[in-house]
Amino acid sequence: MTITPDQIPAQHQKRTPALESEMVPRPQYDDPNYKGSGKLQDKVALITGGDSGIGRSVAVYYAKEGADVAIVYFDEHDDAKETQQAVEDYGRRCLLIPGDIRGEDFCREAVQKTIKEFGQIDILVNNAAVQYQEPSLDEIDAARLGDVFATNIFSMFYFAKAATPHMKPGSSIINTTSINAYKGNPSLLSYSTTKGAILAFTRSLAEPMLEKGIRVNGVAPGPIWTPFIPDAFSGDDVANFGKQVPMQRPGQPKEVAPSFVFLASEDASYMAGQVLHPNGGVVVNG
Hints:
- GO terms for molecular function: oxidoreductase activity, acting on CH-OH group of donors.
- It is built from 9 helices and 7 strands, in the order E-H-E-H-E-H-E-H-E-H-H-E-H-H-H-E.
- It is α/β, with parallel strands linked by helices.
- It has a single domain, classed as Rossmann fold.
- Helix 1 runs parallel beside helix 2 and helix 3 runs parallel beside helix 4.
- It starts with 43 loop residues before the first strand and ends in a 10-residue tail after the last strand.
């Protein structure tokens, strides 16, 4: 069952990062009709921002396809434990790694913990991000820029640098960019700028990684019902969330996760430097 905007009441969470457990209605991260077929059997995935939203759904879908997962998150411990339980319910292991991805040392340690626990990394999903509403350029200072860029794009460099020495040919890196990288968003200026940087990072990293047999691709979601929304937006904006796309509704994490499954699997063996667009029908270039 899809959720329409009129089923989402006005709401806002003062806590940052916001919690999935406090959202009304709860995001849909699993589809019981999706049956795994072993596409990622015995693979190991490291997913940043895996406690909730798109990251949680990706973790669950990877588990359904036979992968073990390590999820990196900030401090949303209850949400992370719920994701861990969902992964384990499908018979796979899930390692929780809390910490701050703005620091390269932590990113390196997260990779090392994953290797120690599972012995390998086959899939790196760079998904964690922050966003803030910014009505004017004057409201964006150096501290804000440093926070957004360190979280959204610098961490991707750190994780790729730490993980790729452990990744064998056939492995995959998948970066979460956004529709805002293509269309821009005047109220999310710093966030949209980092998403454009992620697009360039994905395309620029893809070719050199092919020399190692690693495929690098991206996913650019449109408006998806995740903790991002009641965190960054006012109550009234949340109540109207998703109406702007042709489907006139927000997407659910479960509608995005299959794109990550495809890009991680051998089904996408001839794809590198590409981006998929689960965005509710918006036509973008590239």
